[in-house]
Amino acid sequence: MAKKNQTLGEFIIENQADFQYSSGELSRLINSIRLAAKVVNHEVNKAGLVDITGAAGEVNIQGEDQQKLDVYANDKFIQTLTNREIVCGIASEENDDFITICGQKEDHNNKYVVLIDPLDGSSNIDVNVSVGTIFSIYRRVTPMGSPVTIDDFLQEGNQQVAAGYIVYGTSTMLVYTTGHGVNGFTLNPAIGTYYLSHPDMKFPEDGNIYSINEGNYVHFPQGVKDYIKYCQTEEGDRPYTARYIGSLVSDIHRNMIKGGIYIYPKSSKASNGKLRLLYECNPMAFIAEQAGGKASDGYQRIMDLKPTELHQRVPFFCGSKNMVEKAEEFMK
Ligand SMILES: O=P(O)(O)OC[C@H]1O[C@](O)(COP(=O)(O)O)[C@@H](O)[C@@H]1O
Ligand SMILES: [Mg+2]
Ligand SMILES: [Mg+2]
After folding, report:
1. How far apart are CA 79 and CA 83, in angstroms?
2. Ligand 1 near 94 CB (within 6 A)
3. Where is substrate annotated to bind (predicted)?
4. Which runs of E-coded beta strand occur in 123-247?
5. Is the CB of 123 inside a 6 Å radius of any atom of ligand 1?
6. ipTM summary value
7. Collapsing DSSP states into helix, strand and coil, what is residue 323?
C-alpha cells in the first residue's frame, strides 16, 4: 500500500513488480519524465522574468503559433528521453512526424514509445495561469531491432502501459498510472523531490462542476446545449458551478479532486473538436478511468477509438462517471 509522503523514486521502485513486463525500463522512463518535468518547472516558474514568454515565431502542424515555452518544454522532454536511451520513438504535439530514437546501438532493445503534449494550456503561459504536460506510453508493436513505424504510435488507448500529467500550478504535481490506480506526487521545490501527496486518487462518482468553453455555445451540437441547460437548471443539487481554466490538465485535475465534468465537444467550427486523441485524450482517459471516472467522445469510450492519424482530434467528455453518463444521454 502506497505510504503517504513516500518519495516518487521510492514509489517507482516499490511498485515496479506491479508491472507485467517489469524489467526496470518503465521505471527508468518514468524517472526521466520526472527529471524533465523539474527542468521545465524551473522555467515555467520564471515565466515573465526570463525571455520565455510569447510566441516562438513558428507554427506547428496544428496551425497554432508555437509559444517559446512549448518549444522549450518539447526540447527538454525529447532530450531527456533520448539521452537515457529507453525509448525507441517519440511523438509530440510540437513535431509534425514521430521521431525515431536509435541511440548508440542500431539494434537497441528499447521497447517503449512515448507520445507527449509538452506544454498543455499554452494560451495561459503569459497570464500566470496553471499549465501542464501530458504523456502516454506504449510498448512498440513492431519487432525489436526493426525500424519504428507509425503503427507503434497509432495504438488504441486501451493498450497504454502508463500515462500521466504534470500540472505546473500553485504547486507542481506529477500524477500517473501504470494501470494500478492513480497516484499524485507534489514537488518540494526547495529540495527538488516529489512526495506522494495524493495516494490512490479517485474521481467522485458525482460532482457539481462543469467545465466547457461556453463562448462557443452557438456552435455546439444540440445535445451539448441541452446538457449545459441541464447543468444551469435550479433543481436538486443544481445549478452546478461553471469552472473553466482553459488548460485541459488543470481543469481535469481540479474535477478529479472535487468531482466534475470537462467537455470539449465538436462544433460547427471544429467538426472533431480541438483536443488530440493520442497525447491529450487517451492519457487523460486512462487516468480518469483508473480513478473511477469515465471518458468518451459523447458516444464511444475514448480508449477504444482506433487512431488513424498522429494529430487527429476527437470530441472529449471526461470526468465523474455519473456526470459523463448524463451528458451522453443528452447526446443520444
Ligand atoms: O481556448 P479553448 O478553445 O477553450 O481551448 C482550451 C483547450 O485547448 C488546450 O489549450 C489545447 O492544448 P495545448 O495548449 O496543448 O494546445 C487545452 O489545454 C485546453 O483545454
Ligand atoms: Mg494540450
Ligand atoms: Mg500543448
Report:
1. 6
2. no
3. 120-123, 213, 244, 274
4. 131-139, 162-168, 172-177, 182-188, 193-198, 209-211, 241-242
5. yes
6. 0.99
7. helix
